[in-house]
User: Fold Multidrug ABC transporter ATP-binding protein from Methyloceanibacter marginalis.
Amino acid sequence: MPPIISVKDLSKTYGTGLSALKDINLDINKGEIFALLGPNGAGKTTLISIICGIVTPSSGSVTVGGHDIVTGYRAARSMIGLVPQELTADMFETVWTTVSFSRGLFGKWPNPVYIEKILKDLTLWDKKDSKLMTLSGGMKRRVLIAKALSHEPSILFLDEPTAGVDVELRKEMWQVVRDLRDSGVTIILTTHYIREAEDMADRIGVINKGELILVEDKHELMHKLGQKQLTLQLHEAIDTIPAELGSHDLKLGNGGSELVYTYDSQGPRTGITHLLTDLSQAGIRFKDLDTSQSSLEDIFVDLVRRDR
Assistant:
């Protein structure tokens, strides 16, 4: 099955000379949740804006559902729902009017039953007659999602969708996203909450300085780049790591009362047996040990640091 979004050799340089994107190549599959991660200014919003037809690329091409975003703009744009970071709507309009109007902008016939379902799914039904200016920040964020879904798109872009949203609402929103994915909608999200990407995404892309430095299945990424740590709680704190333990990747922790050993759990040897033997010979005793796995956040920070 061909990808629902295909980005080829895409670059964007602004009039100021800022190179926001550099030769981006990316395919996104139908029905997946794809998380795009990167620090501020990395190019995430520029990439989304180009795919959605808001920003013009300097070079390269993008197709959405087989439609070129330049020559087939209307067909491509009709497939896309975009949840931007900022609310762009008339503050004096009601929730119902705002969402219904967004549907009309795409030439869709009125469908009050569908609009009602969206508002109920997003816990907005009791606010349907409220003006946007009276809503909380979290409620306004829900309205953005409702607007994006109003014309029944097959692709949904979520640009920092849970920024400023409380934990309870965040969980509700992600359940809506899961339901959409299960119904066949393709989801592309950017988020600063890396835990959300770890929980939600099927694949992860990391962008930095306008370059796509990695695209990987989430589980494969964790498998390839994830490291494990063995933490040894010592009977007695030490000030420095003995020289005879220098061949091991050890760090002191918790004021010298812990030794932390980092290793590749997928390697042919973990080195733990050798480490424990050397600890015994150095006269260092431990009373307990614990292991932990690198999180996606650890991996992300490490990738961006390497790319500097």
User: Anything to note?
Assistant: The longest strand covers residues 19-28. Residues 167-182 form the longest helix (16 residues). The CA atoms of residues 93 and 131 lie 5 Å apart.
